[in-house]
């Protein structure tokens, strides 16, 4: 669950280098099986790496035909818009952003104990007004504010005091911290909505108050059957967007 | 690809009846394997059915523990907010809505030939201004407008004239019509955004112009490597919302 997507990132980098060394614009790349053999990784890893390169616009894929060089690797340009998230993997967003070669940073991060709002109380299944942790973060990509996250966690998880301090830096992530309490996050649910950016969120994202923003209301469910984390995310859509991909097996 | 989710809908209905007949509030349901045996369906079908019942609020699931009756089956109440979509299955939204026991309808549907706008031309890979099909539909759930869809399709798909007339009724769906041209949709991409409802969309959805709405920009890729369908959807979020679920394997 907690692995940063290192294998796929390394495979993506290896394929970038392969393209730079051996392939021209429009060339067809070797098959997934052949790439897996050459890179000595699994086909799953190759597929994840190709997904990332496709999102970067480096390759195009003609279904049933193959994968082609659409653009030769060069310095990253243009806004960052996509990070490949395997739906079966619940991990750290900064790790994923770093894995694409972009630099994540946290220009704003604060953890504080607050009384649970009605919404946070309902999500976490605690009494309204009970003290909980609230973590407010702004995640930037290559220096541009991209996502504002409001996380809510009970003061104790699985009876163990929970300290969110590590997530106010890039090194920490909630799944790891929750895991340290002997609990494992096994399910994340994110409800997608449109909203108008309020003053606070707008200021952090660098947009005008009242700008329409994509938001998610997320709950992370532990293997104990309880919700251990409730998160509201706000995305600045010129910088970060969510792409849902559905495929039919070949 | 085109199967309406009949098996899962039938399994969900069978589990509803099972709960009504044999189970009380708070009771634990049999395991997935046991339900699969009793219903004589696959575990995949049971899982999809339980996903639907969970979205309906009928059951709760304690991960690693089991599935419990959260609410006894009764007449559907409250707004419809969720339809379970398996990400590996590209199918018909009205079919899925019907499979949850709700009634889909099309209070508005129109197909017309129009010159391709820059956005539609770019998505479909045709010259700007080339004549294409534009289908505008409003999909209602139990009589309440829920989704406005703007579909764009070339006049010919795979060299075969394309007639969108069937999708202006509930019986037709794009994957089937595209398949009739000898082409198969193998990949759908949906980019999620927040926008303000314009006059036309607002009127169809029954909301005020300027209301923030969730929208998706979708492209459907055929096995020939081309985009055969470009769709913009607008969701009325009090009626229909999108829930992304990520799970970690047990």
UniProtKB/TrEMBL annotation, chains A, B:
GO terms for molecular function: DNA binding; DNA-binding transcription factor activity. Pfam families: GntR, UTRA. GO terms for biological process: negative regulation of DNA-templated transcription. It comes from the Bacteria. InterPro entries: Bact_HTH_transcr_reg, Chorismate_lyase_/UTRA_dom_sf, Tscrpt_reg_HTH_GntR, UTRA, WH-like_DNA-bd_sf, WH_DNA-bd_sf. Keywords: DNA-binding, Transcription, Transcription regulation. Residues 4-72 form the HTH gntR-type domain. This is GntR family transcriptional regulator.
């Amino acid at each position: 669950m907690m692995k940063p997507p290192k294998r796929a990132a390394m495979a993506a980098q290896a394929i970038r280098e392969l393209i730079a060394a051996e392939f021209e614009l429009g060339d067809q790349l070797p098959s997934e099986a052949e790439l897996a053999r050459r890179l000595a990784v699994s086909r799953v890893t190759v597929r994840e790496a190709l997904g990332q390169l496709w999102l970067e616009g480096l390759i195009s894929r003609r279904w049933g035909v193959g994968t082609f060089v659409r653009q030769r690797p060069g310095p990253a340009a243009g806004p960052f818009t996509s990070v490949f998230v395997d739906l079966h993997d619940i991990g750290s967003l900064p790790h994923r952003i770093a894995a694409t070669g972009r630099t994540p940073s946290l220009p704003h991060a604060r953890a504080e104990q607050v009384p649970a709002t009605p919404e946070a109380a309902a999500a976490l299944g605690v009494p309204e007004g009970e003290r909980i942790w609230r973590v407010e973060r702004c995640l930037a990509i290559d220096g541009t504010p991209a996502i504002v996250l409001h996380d809510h966690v009970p003061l104790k998880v699985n009876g163990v005091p929970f300290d969110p301090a590590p997530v106010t830096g890039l090194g920490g992530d909630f799944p790891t911290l929750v895991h340290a309490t002997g609990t494992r996050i096994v399910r994340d649910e994110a409800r997608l909505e449109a909203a108008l950016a309020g003053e606070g969120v707008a200021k952090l994202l660098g947009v005008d108050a009242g700008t329409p923003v994509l938001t998610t209301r997320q709950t992370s469910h532990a293997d104990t059957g309880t919700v251990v984390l409730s998160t509201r995310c706000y995305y600045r859509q010129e910088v970060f967007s969510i792409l849902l991909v559905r495929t039919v097996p070949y």
